[in-house]
């Protein structure tokens, strides 16, 4: 804990409280909060959306290091935009730019002569020819109904549990969807439910902008096989060699005595009258390493995807989620960060800072921690339910430290979600991209 100036008399001092997780738990216990959930409950870490996504950048990311999705959270329809970390164009090759030394010499000369715009333009030539590009795997598309009149919409990315939750009310029925990407079982799991039985109905399909074929089995599985271009997309895409192959399998498990499933046009499943539904998405590619050409790979992505799915199907949804949370929280909960309210923030008559009593000889650091926690707890809880965009807009007038905490932990969440041992290293945009020709290449 740190402050500027005389801690015994400066009532406007700003406080920062950073501690190891074990110490955070002991403070929570001493304050009378539940030992396991107290700090979580007191300091929620949620990215909150008040409406469905309109653009890709509005969607909420989930990932297990290899398999990622952006959750759009629509009411009439839902879209989970999918990625796999080894689905790229191209193959092994020498990507060294032999002209780079000469270009670098030119850039240095321009800088030495103060010609900075020219140096910037010339520096683009350092990268040489255009590189190969990351490819989207495809989408899970859910269609519920048209012209749904809904209320109480909320979409949340919970950083404590690495889940995205969507809830809304239609009439007197509350609908909910929960999504997560499991690292232990390598699947994306979705549970769709309602608070009254027999009210879950929708159609579901898999789509992709890549070359593909789709079939549906009697086991409620949609199987999508395809390949990405052997070279980065261009106008004569038909001339491209076949690149890395992929397979995605979506499994649908229904709950409810009166639920019915039918196949539409051999490409879509329609479900009616279920109590709840679980969707499991497994995916794999033929990528066999950086030195194996796609045409020479011996890996069968369909066999790999079915192997992954068979293990996940043997688990209940609650078991999958429990394994997911144990795995994720073993990483995420290694760091606890708490920042006090800034000096420009007031709670009633209490101003965050050091009181005369807090500055007395008998006061302890833990006393200060309890006092800060008590003063800020209700405010943090209130902030956590506001749409995050509103908190960002108001930050210029109210420098809300809990928003800084959220940003700090959001960065950690993204890195945990986009790169794990055994996966590809994190690139500029993690594992989330919906563009066959992404500008960042």
TrEMBL record:
InterPro entries, per database record: 6-hairpin_glycosidase_sf (IPR008928), GH95_cat (IPR054363), GH95_N_dom (IPR027414)
Domain (Glycosyl hydrolase family 95 N-terminal) ranges: 49-288
Record domain Glycosyl hydrolase family 95 catalytic: where: 384-441
SUPFAM superfamilies per record: Six-hairpin glycosidases (SSF48208)
Gene3D superfamilies from the UniProt entry: putative glycoside hydrolase family protein from bacillus halodurans (2.70.98.50)
UniProt protein name: Glycosyl hydrolase family 95 N-terminal domain-containing protein
